[in-house]
Amino acid sequence: MSPLMRLALPVLAAASAAYAASCSISATTTIQSGGDASALASCTTFSGSIAIATGAAGPLALNGIKRIAGTLSANNNSALTTLSSDSLESIDQFELTDVTALSEINFPKLSTVKTLKWISVSVLANLVSAITSADGIDIENTKLQSLSGINLETVGDIKIVNNIFITEIEMQVTNITGVLIFEGNNADLTIKLADLKAANNMTFQSCSSIEVPALASLNDSLVLLKNTFDSFIAPNLTKIGNSLVINDNNKLTNISFPLLTGVSRALQIANNTELGKIDGLPKLAKIGADLDFHGNFSEVSLPSLTDVTGTFNIQSTGDIQNTCDTKFKPMSNQGGTSRIQGKYTCIGSVANPGGEGTTPTPTGSGAKKTGAASSLNVQAGALSFAGLAAAFFL
């Protein structure tokens, strides 16, 4: 080896060690400015966490980095306006909280995140990304009008809440293994999940349209609360692993679950003021806990029902008494056939139909066509939608 090489090798080794150290840091690296971001451009993979300082202002570019094996975060920042990268493909955790001036995120190559959590990024209107893989997505209080940069195939949790400008969500997702919540977004929000075949727990509030044509398997619960659509159809859903709740959807006139055979826990359809008949469950045979229907319907049909493990409560302003007496009472203990195992109540022409445990009042003069709140609906006014679902399904 030449004398020159002997001198050069230690220098090269030191440079390599310095490069490795700068791209793999156990402590959090804080970015104050564009210059700090540019200093990381030589790192193809950055192992560690990057925090954007609360005082960082204007546009910020993280060019050069392809992967962040850690967290990229910004919290309580009121001056950052755009966040971009022409190279970033993967982030473990992407967290933005109270970043109130950020209007654009431009990561055209970003395809993979483990968790994405954006809370109160209140002026964010433009998103450019290519995210197809995530364990969890939580986007709350933004100005996004769509999720066009997020097109997941498989995901754990999806939570889209209080994004009042978002009017359309269309995803190619086929499997949701965790919790899906859409709540408090634009009243005209349409949701298209055309390829979704399997899900765990799904809750929808304040949506104008929901399409789940391929959904066949639901391991946990489905909750539809205070939506504005007139019809909900799940043409291929065969069984619900926990509860089915359809409450306070004031324009709903049709529900259809043509292949649904079982609900493992509770079934509640309540206070859907325009729902004149409940006849969209032709194959439903077993309910593993309580059945509770109350509202203004004049027709109710459950032709395949054979077993209700809990209480059975049907109350309506409509004249359904003949159906109660001929179709359901023979299934109750009182009627001698022990297929309804809990307390049996079925009565029509009541002034204020209510949930299990309420006392039906016969219709009198001046009675209004309305439904009294059940215990579940009382909770709806006091809890968030997620809290309501959690309280009911425990």
From TrEMBL:
Keywords: Cell wall, Glycoprotein, Secreted, Signal. It is found in: Secreted, Cell wall. This is GPI-anchored cell wall organization protein Ecm33. InterPro entries: CWI-Assembly_Regulator (IPR051648), Rcpt_L-dom_sf (IPR036941). Residues 1-20 form the signal peptide. It comes from the Eukaryota. One of its GO terms (biological process) is fungal-type cell wall organization. One of its GO terms (cellular component) is plasma membrane.
